[in-house]
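Our preliminary data section would be incomplete without showing what the modeling component actually yields. Below, a chain of 422 amino acids is followed by its predicted structure, encoded as tokens that our downstream tools consume directly.
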Amino acid sequence: MTKMRVTTLGNEIDLLTGFPFPSESYSSGEEDIKLLRGDNIGQGNLRWNDAKKFPVGQRQEYEGFELQINDVVLAMDRPWIDAGLKYASLSEQDLPCLLVQRTARMRGKESLNTIYLKYIIGSPWFTEYIKRITTGSLVPHISSRQIKEFPLQLPSISEQKRIAAVLSAIDQKIEINKRINTELEAMAKTLYDYWFVQFDFPDENGKPYKSSGGKMVYNAELKREIPAGWSDGSLWGIAKYHNGLAMQKYRPKGEKFLPVIKIKEMGEGFSDATERASPDLPKTAIVEDGDVLFSWSATLDVKIWSGGTAALNQHIFKVASGVYPKSFFYYEILNYLNHFKMMAEKRKTTMGHITLDHLKQSRIVLPPIGLIQSLDKKLTPIFKQHLTLEKENQRLAALREYKRPMLMNRQVWVESAGRSDG
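Predicted structure:
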């Protein structure tokens, strides 16, 4: 085993900060090139849902700022938030894209494997270093010089590659599970819309109802036609809504506690900054895997929870079944929230929040309960598989974080890619 080499990050990487692309030149063409800003960087991943673009015709002028596969990027403004460090590694699906100012791009030199670099940047000790050196009260930030000054010990390049191979194998499995879950989500939503939005559920002959000439009748409440025999209702009438609690009076008094789901945790999971509460809570404020949650302020999102037993903070509803199954009220709430957001965007207003009056005044199509139950039998296995893969990814991420320090500090020696011995 060769001796670890003491060095600094600046000696081992090629670091580039982005270009100040003028906002008046932003474009929206399908073929235009994405701009990678700090806002697009999450905790180990990239988020392109609000990506800005630049004219593809000007791409060659800025080729020095074009990113490559495996490049490691780090937000330089607010590099650390409660959810964790804002860094990511580029995959083929993220390309092509250009690097914007106040974002750092890092590539390993000959002495540092770029994939191994990703695990350095994602390590707890690099996060702690960033938290210590971040300056600025209004917009906390870091500089290129500070990034380069990070001290580290490096094994040989061959050992770096072996360690990176072990950790990458875990990340690859996580990515595969994420892709499967994306496909499962799309499949379930398509099936739901086919039955209850397009009204092409199977008729008594197994043919699509509306497309095959099934009888449609006008509903005055909904102001549109719906299948004969169907009715209208409200979100309030198809489920029970339990608001979370302010957790100030439920502080843990001993070693037992529950992590608290606030809006941030609902979207991003738990972090070191997650609040804790006593498990001595009303049952309605305790969340289990599979429960449907929706934030009635800020994000206005709905999701099926997979983070384990937790306490529910205010501003989030836990939605419970009454007569109607989970799959029905989940998609009805999802469709309603999407419409609510779209209307706010059209009016160019803030999204506001959902009140109980909104739920009571909402009007939705109510299919016969037997038909709802028939679709639920098809959707429930998809929901269960999705939840299983979410839980597996949580275990895999925990395994990666358990192995990372042992491998990189040589508590475990990697004999070859994919095999390690303690």
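The chain is about 35% helix and 20% strand. Residues 417-422 have pLDDT under 50 and may be disordered. Preliminary results of this kind motivate Aim 1 of the renewal.
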